[in-house]
Amino acid sequence: MKEFIDYILQFGDLNRQQIDLITSKATRLNLRKDEYFSEAGKIPKQVGFILKGVVRFCYYNNKGQEITHHFVDENNFVSDQQKFEAQIIASDYIEAVTDCELLVFSKKDWDEIGNTIVGWDAITGLIVKNCLLKTIERRSPLVSEDATTRYLTFMEKFPLLVNRIPLSYIASYLGITQQSLSRIRKSIR
Question: Which of 65, 108, 165, 178 could form a disulfide with 171 if both were Cys (CB 3.0 to 4.6 A apart)?
């Protein structure tokens, strides 16, 4: 819980009573590897903060291929935020890549926090902005680089994830085949 409070306090000031309200609304959720936090075709039910583990955002393209476009690890929020706020059907899956432990907030509780704490919208706005900037920062260089450079960049940006994520997910994220990734890994050893 401390990691969660420390994370939030980076984006704004909260008093003890406000922190107690927020923590009282949080529930713990354990996800097993390969379980979904949120599923395409369904309305997202919760916002989570990852205490332990890694999740990925993925979808199926028009050829039926699974595409991984984002990873989120410890001490970060995870949600399909836009769809969660609007309560509309998600187009992405959010899947546990490893066993995960999260703090989660239902839509009702999340809204209640927002309606009770003055300035909560500003704090969550900064958190969402920070998450988007991280995503863009991690993703943008991958667009124009060759496959080897993309993998080396991935290893640099996600040093703690390389050995925790299946190669098929990394290959999908990098936009290459698993065979190509295996060749690249052999060539750089």
Answer: 178
List the alpha helices (DSSP H) in 145-188: 147-157, 167-174, 178-187
Residues in the chain: 189
| Encoded tokens for 155 | 């290893």
For 142-160, the pLDDT digits (tens) are: 666 788 888 888 888 888 8
Alpha-carbon distance values, 36 to 9, 48, 126, 132 (Å) = 28, 12, 26, 21
Q: Which of 43, 134, 144, 52 is closest to 98 using CA atoms?
A: 52
pTM of the model: 0.87
Facing residues of 128 across strands?
none
Tens-digit pLDDT profile for residues 42-68: 999 999 999 999 999 999 888 888 889
Beta-sheet pairing, 46-52 with 55-60: unpaired
CA–CA separation, 93 and 79 (whole Å): 10
